[in-house]
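Need tokens for this chain, all 521 residues.
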Amino acid sequence: MLFFLLRKLFGNSRSLGSRQPVQTRSNKKSSSGNNMGNELSTKLEEVQKQFQLTPDLVVRHLTIQATGTKAALVYLDSLTDNEVINNDIVNPLLSEGPVNKDEHPFHTNVGNIRKGTEWADLESAILSGDTVLLIDGNPDAFFLDTKGWPKRAIEDPQIETSLKGAHQGFLETGTQNIALIRRYLPDRELKIKELTIGVRGKTKVWIMYLADVANPDLLKVLESRLAAIDVDSIINTGELVEYIEDNPYSPFPQFILTERPDSTVSQLLQGRMAVIVDCSPSVLVAPATFITFFQSIDDYSTRWMIASFIRLLRYLAFIIALILPATYIAFISFNYEVIPMQLLLSIAESRTRVPFPPLLEAMLMEITLEMMRESGIRLPAPVGQTVGIVGGIIIGQTAVQAGIVSNIMVIVVASTAIASFIIPSYDMGTAIRLLRFPMMIIAFMFGIVGIIIGLMILVAHLVSLESLGTPYGSPLAPFRWSDMKDTFVRIPLSKMVKRPESTSPLQSRRGKDNRRAGGNP
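Here are the structure tokens for all 521 residues:
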């Protein structure tokens, strides 16, 4: 009920026209747009002014052996690879080598070299991990690619674990994440668009898509929303989602956040787009539908009958996690006549010592469960698992013995927790955990009728929700029979010859025959 009222008060969607264009920083120094000049000492003085209180700034003076010209290398030691600087820049500069004066009057082994003449270009290059070469008498600054910030090794995904899938997860380096995707999809049609978001942080963002599959209209919508973001910096992908989603007041996730390269490639092949944020180990995939959050990469590496059974189990777990506590409250408070007599007597006996109404009893146990879940996440892994298991057993047993809750309530809460863990998407599982509380309140007020009203509101909200303008309820609303092959059940892969219509792909048919034809069959 809470999100429904918020949607009515604040609107159902975020208009693109209400976003303001990104404004440039007004507190930049007046010299940031001026040319640097020719004299080396003057340029170094200005660099020291721009980077005051920067202890990791390194200025290395040297003489280019091939021309006898004085020069200086300027870089941030914490963001560069010192081995590359010494072996590929300093050593070639100090030794005579071939010089192409038309392109740059020095010789290095670095492949990516850019020029700049303004202080803003120099500042941006240094802060992004490049090494700047300043030459006496030359008005140009040369930016050499020497990025080498700390990075971790490729590890198993922490949230999206897989039994048969690849044991590789995304990292905090955007270029490495692009490389992981390219390994799975070495296709010339895999295109990448680079954007920079943030006035201060200047976070790099890449949009990856298959040019001959992805819908260009959806791509334009995504680009326009990203370009309209006006913030200091984007720290992770979760922040980015809030700026571009259609309905910020909905509890349901409207984009897929994944940490698996193989899952991302699977979505790209279906006509979706991936957004990679530098410094974030999660990749955003858009557009999304309600059904996609119940699909797992293991569904396509397991026999189709087993995968279909597990997927049906997930939908059953969704219903249990959403309405089981509310159903218990409705039966005990209003509709106890539907309970078999022997079970009703057992429930009544277990509740004889409980002084609280069913709603307060359920709320108490659910809040305790959520606190235990969060504490288990924050603690170290071995300690968190022990605290979760032992704490649950002790609290449940002592609560029953003390007469605070009934035995049946402990069973209901435990079943709800297990059901919420079955859902493969963490964001969707969190949404269900949140919606469980208003469902319990409306069940306490109106019984089974209240549960039905709550479900009707949820269905109406899901039908009206969109992701990048794509219907969130597809392929159920609007109904698309061709997409039902990978919805509640998964038919054999040999029969899944068409891409989902919900993404509006340019090529609906998979495989080389359609690619050779260059369009839809």
